[in-house]
Amino acid sequence: MECVRLQPLFEYLKGLLLAFWLHFSPTILIFGHPVRGGEGRAEDVLVGLLLGLAKQSQCQTVEGSTRASCLPLFRGYVRARVGLEREYALSTGTLGEFRDRWAC
Question: Which of 6, 39, 64, 86 sits most deeply, having the most CB atoms within 10 A of its CB?
Answer without folding.
Answer: 6
